[in-house]
C-alpha cells in the first residue's frame, strides 16, 4: 500500500466518523429536550417582558392621571413626565430581557458586560451626536420648554407634540405628517400653548356709516359672543379705527382667548359681526362695478 492510498483511507475513515458522530448527536434525546426548553424559556422571557412593559405603563398612566395635583404639576407636565418614564421602562426591561436571552443561549455574561462597557466607552467618543441628543432631551424636560400636547414651532416644523424622549421629539402637524426631530438639533422653540392667545379681527365699514352707532352695535355683538364662548377669557375690546382705506373705514377688535383658540374665535367673531351688521343695515364695503350702456343716439352726438 502506497502513501496516497493510506491517506485516502484515512480521509474516508475521518468522514465516516464525522457523519457517525453527527448522527449520534442528532439522535440524542437530551440534546433536543434541552434545545426545546431553551426555546420555550426564550419565548417566555420575550412574552413576559412585553407584558411587563404594558402593565407598568398602564399603572404609570393611571397614577399620573390621578396624581397631577398631588405632584404639584399640571396635566401637560404630567403627560411629559409620563412619556419619559414609559421610554425608560421600555429600554430597561428590554435590556434585561436581552441579557436573559443571551444567558439561555449559553453566553457568559461577565465578559459580555465587561466588553459592553469598553465598547460603550469607545462608542461614546464616536457617537457625540447621540450624547448631544440625550443631554438636550434631558434639559428640554427639566426646564419644561414644551410638553406633550403643546402646539409648538421647531425650526421649519409646526404642530402638536406627541412624544418627548431623551433622544428624539415627535411632532404631528395639522395636516397629519409626523416629524421626528433629534433633540440635539433643537435650537429655538416657539411654544403657543403656555400662555393665552389673542384673536385680532379687522372689520371694514362704509364711510357713510355713523361710527358711534357701529360701535354700539359691535359692543352688543361682542358682549353676546363673550357670554356664549368658553374660549374667550376676557371681554373683547374695540380698539378703534385702525385704517382709512380707499373705500372703507377699518375697525380693529381684539379678544384674549385660551391658548391656540384664537383662530376659531376670530372666525366666530367675523360670522357674528356679519350677521349683526346685516340685521342693523350696516354696510360692509365690497368692490362694485358700474356699467354704462351707450344708446345709438349718444353714439351719433
Automatic annotation (TrEMBL):
GO cellular component: plasma membrane
Protein's name according to its UniProt entry: Small conductance mechanosensitive channel
Function: May play a role in resistance to osmotic downshock.
Family: Belongs to the MscS (TC 1.A.23) family.
Domain Mechanosensitive ion channel MscS: 129-193
The species this protein was found in: Tepidibacillus fermentans
Topology of this chain in the membrane: Multi-pass membrane protein
Membrane-spanning intervals of the chain: 35-60, 108-127
Top-rank taxon: Bacteria
Amino acid at each position: 500500500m502506497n502513501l496516497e492510498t493510506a491517506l485516502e483511507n484515512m480521509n474516508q475513515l475521518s468522514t465516516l466518523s464525522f457523519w457517525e458522530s453527527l448522527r449520534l448527536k442528532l439522535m440524542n434525546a437530551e440534546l433536543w429536550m434541552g434545545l426545546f426548553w431553551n426555546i420555550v424559556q426564550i419565548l417566555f422571557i420575550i412574552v413576559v417582558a412585553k407584558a411587563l412593559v404594558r402593565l407598568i405603563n398602564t399603572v404609570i398612566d393611571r397614577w399620573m392621571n390621578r396624581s397631577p395635583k398631588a405632584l404639584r404639576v399640571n396635566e401637560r407636565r404630567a403627560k411629559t413626565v409620563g412619556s419619559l418614564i414609559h421610554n425608560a421602562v421600555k429600554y430597561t426591561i428590554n435590556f434585561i430581557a436581552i441579557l436573559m436571552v443571551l444567558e439561555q443561549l449559553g453566553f457568559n455574561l461577565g465578559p459580555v458586560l465587561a466588553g459592553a462597557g469598553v465598547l460603550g466607552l469607545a462608542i461614546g467618543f464616536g457617537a457625540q451626536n447621540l450624547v448631544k441628543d440625550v443631554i438636550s432631551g434631558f434639559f428640554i424636560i427639566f426646564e419644561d420648554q414644551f410638553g406633550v400636547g403643546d402646539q409648538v414651532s421647531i425650526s421649519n416644523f409646526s404642530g402638536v407634540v406627541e412624544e418627548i424622549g431623551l433622544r428624539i421629539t415627535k411632532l404631528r402637524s395639522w395636516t397629519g405628517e409626523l416629524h421626528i426631530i433629534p433633540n440635539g438639533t433643537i435650537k429655538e422653540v416657539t411654544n403657543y400653548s403656555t400662555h393665552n392667545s389673542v384673536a385680532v379681527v379687522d372689520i371694514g365699514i362704509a364711510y357713510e356709516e355713523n361710527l358711534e352707532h357701529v360701535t354700539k352695535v359691535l359692543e352688543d355683538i361682542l358682549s353676546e359672543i363673550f357670554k356664549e364662548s368658553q374660549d374667550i377669557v376676557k371681554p373683547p375690546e374695540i380698539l378703534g379705527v385702525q385704517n382709512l382705506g380707499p373705500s372703507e373705514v377699518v375697525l380693529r377688535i381684539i379678544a384674549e382667548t385660551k391658548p391656540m383658540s384664537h383662530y376659531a374665535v376670530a372666525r366666530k367673531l367675523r360670522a357674528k359681526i356679519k350677521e349683526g351688521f346685516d340685521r342693523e343695515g350696516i354696510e360692509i364695503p365690497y368692490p362694485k362695478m358700474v356699467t354704462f350702456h351707450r344708446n345709438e343716439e349718444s353714439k351719433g352726438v
